[in-house]
Amino acid sequence: MNARAKKHRSRTLLWLALPTLILLPLVLLSTFWTVPTHVQLEVATTRLAVTLGGQERREIFSRSVPFSSLVIESCKIVAFAAEKLEVADPQQLVAGTKAEEAPHFPTTAWQEIKPTDPVRLSCSDPAAKVTLNSLDPASPRLGSFDRIYFEPGSQVVLEAFSGREPAVSAEIATPQDLHLALGSELELVADLVKPDGIQVPFAGDLLTYRAWLPEARRMVEVTSGQHGLVLIVTPPRGQVAELFAEPLDLPLSSVEMLEEDLDGRLITPLRDEATLRYPDYPAVPAVTLKKEDAVGLGGLSDARLRSLRFDAEKGALRATFDGTARRATTLAGAIATDRRLTLYHTFRYNWRWALLAVAATWLVSTSWAAFEAWKKLRE
Known about the structure:
By secondary structure, the chain is of the alpha+beta class. It has a domain at about 60-245. The chain is about 15% helix and about 40% strand. It has helices spanning about 5-30, 345-350, 350-379, and strands at about 35-45, 45-50, 65, 70-75, 75-80, 85-90, 110-115, 120, 130-135, 145, 155-160, 165-170, 175-180, 185-190, 195, 205-210, 220-225, 230-235, 250-255, 260, 265, 275, 285-290, 295-300, 300-310, 315-325, 325-330, 335-340. The longest helix is centred in the first third of the chain and has 28 residues, at about 5-30. The protein is elongated and about 110 Å long.
């Protein structure tokens, strides 16, 4: 075999092997090359922090949120009109002696004081809080608060509490003015809160008031501090489903599901197993995340909170997220797992991309064969 024939044969073998030489490294690389991934995450968690995206104000709570009790923190002013106002002597508080008996004041503990119009409670202390309860233990509903709008970029932290009376805490990082529509009778527990212009006969940082609101002005107005406020809402039994707006479709820029334990370590707040799905690739198996796994989603785009409801029985928030994530990791102990899809998944589970890869391989091979045939015809 002369040198020209050997060269021709070597070139022929090279071109025949070229598709394999090109595609094999690409296949290997594609198994490690992650891409921004459209994910859907269903979780039951005790803590959820979201930052709202988009360009418009949005609502998370329903337009008339009912509550049987309400704790207000980080507020500036709480104001209401009162036909009659009483305050209890803190020294006469009777502790509950039975498991189902709550602490209470005897009739002799109450003393009437002259109210101002309106009664204004100043929450100047950073640790101040006001708790609103119904005077009627048999009443399942104390009142409701009006619509709360959240500006784009504002952060809302939601926490679920289980116990004798399950509750939801909402930390709202933007200023708010709330109007609470209440019944005629109201118990108000003021912790580090002082009334303006009212002489109170008892000293102490924790005082309990009873107020009777006028028929035409059964409203409590709450002005938040500069950095928003915190609400702990206890919904009436049987009205838990009315807490959050439905249908819910909130644009998000970030999602966080972590909390600190007593030692300051970050832990997962997952209440049950979570499910991570890939809507664009239904054939890719869903990922089941254990309660011990820490979940993080970052670099979100086109992300939305699709549903949110309060599971009072388990004391958890059940939420569904949908969006494209540039970071989707789970952490089991010290082992982090990237849950984004790779180029390999793109080729394997999308017939268009797979067909394109086959076509490219076929094009390289046939092009070389045609070129060789053309050369022989010219000889």
